[in-house]
Here is the input.
Amino acid sequence: MADKRLIRSLFKLSGLLIGASALIFLLVAAVRIRRDKVCTDVSIKFKGGSVGRYVESADIAAQMWPGGIPSLKNRPLGSLDLSLMEQRIEQDPWVRNAELFIDANDKLQVIVEEQEPVARVFTREGISFYIDSALRRIPLNRRFTPNLPVFTGLPVSASEHRGSDSAWMSQVLAIVSAMRTDSLWLAQMEECAYEPPLGFVMYPMAGEHRIIFGDATSANDKFRNLFVFYAKVLAREGWNSYKTIDLRFDRQVVAIPAIPNIITRKTPDSIHADAGGTSTTAPVLSATRLSTSSQVKPSVNPSTKTNSRTPRLVMPTRQRSP
Here is the structure.
């Protein structure tokens, strides 16, 4: 009885060994057949679009293999090191990621993801570059110039990296992130210059005023206060009626008139906002003399009914000359 069990066990083991050997043989044969096949064609696609803005398909092909696409066609698949080719493509500073694979038709598929800059930066020495959302520096591109917020006069090194540079780039990114919440600011802000001791100072496309932004602290609140000031004051008084708008103070906008010692009619002395920043109807006050500065203080006013509608802001058609 024990002999029969042993024989059955031997047969099962032999069957398993034979099956494993056959599987290994088939795999090796498949690999050999695969290695003997040739690359029928090359397809280069860009993630998010069919045509790259910053890099061309010919550049990608030349980076991953000498001679480009013509030299890749009819080349044995076994001679293609896809991992090495990916690394070569990603050496381009405008390429964020590259993925290569061979499809069922023996065609080399190349998927390229381009960099997405969020701001253009100028150092104090005039050196210019882009940064992305991860604070990586990207050189200027010869093919395409994106329309991005421009920051000038930054005290950063021309080449990477000093320890203090990351702090400055983080402030730039925080301001850009706040600007991107509303397309109005992306279209309105022509330049954001670093001007110590004021900090960041913005120069808008519409109007002859400057906006003292300070540092990136509470950037969203500062833009919300600026919108309320635009909607409630500049829309009424005129877009060139103030030369400086200061946003550095908590829950307060300090504005200096373009012409001092003027008397305006029905100038709102304060603009109220609810806790979420939504503007409310401001009380109409008597004539106020603007000698050196006029203050607009968004604050909570329980006695005023909240207007859920955002004030309609009509920008002037004339733009700031370059």
